[in-house]
Amino acid sequence: xxxxxRAVIVGSGANPAPxxxxxxxxxxxxxxxxxxxxxxxxxAGMAPDAVIGDMDSISPRLRETLEDGDGSIxxxxxPAKKDSTDAQLALEHVLGELPxxxxxxxxxxxxxxxxxxxxxxxxxxxLPAAVRRRVVLTDGAQFARTVEGTLELRGSPGDLxxxxxxxxxxxxxxxxxxxxxxxxxELRWGNTLGVSNHLAGPRGLIRVEGxxxxxxxxxxx
Length: 221
Description:
Elements: E1 7-10, H1 18-24, E2 30-34, H2 37-43, E3 50-53, H3 60-67, E4 74-77, H4 86-97, E5 104-107, H5 114-125, H6 128-131, E6 135-138, E7 143-147, E8 150-154, E9 160-165, E10 169-176, E11 182-188, E12 197-198, E13 203-208, E14 214-219
């Protein structure tokens, strides 16, 4: 996983509360609003480095304010009739803008649109450049992280953790510190082996020694 500059993409779906959102953003993060995500950032007292999308969900007042600022915010406007979601456009922008960057966090990509949530998760399966940098998707209550190699989760005993394969097969999976450990296991499409595990203590270790990519969904208790 690359150790370069971290990027945070904020969408217009279910976002953490403003104070939680502020705590999730680091001072040197590259901050991207996917359209209406700019309003969530504004409510938290933050401004993005870039706003990307067809601009159908950002409030007109905020758009005018940001565009009339000092010019430091980059607006990238796409037509309403487009072939990609705003989240995909923002993610592809980050990969192009920071090719050697670090972790990518996506906030506000869950909500009442199941199609958008699933579309964003499945998008990761086709973007290995993003997965190699580790991607975290969160609404503040759940945290979904891509896993290639090793991931340590910290939490409390009983925290819910589900492992989902982003690729057809994920081989050489090892789980330590979980209620249901695994040794050199295989997770694959069409099987729910990795669903509904729990942390046995304050930390759990997920290791992928074979081919494939996992998505680890952690729900703190």
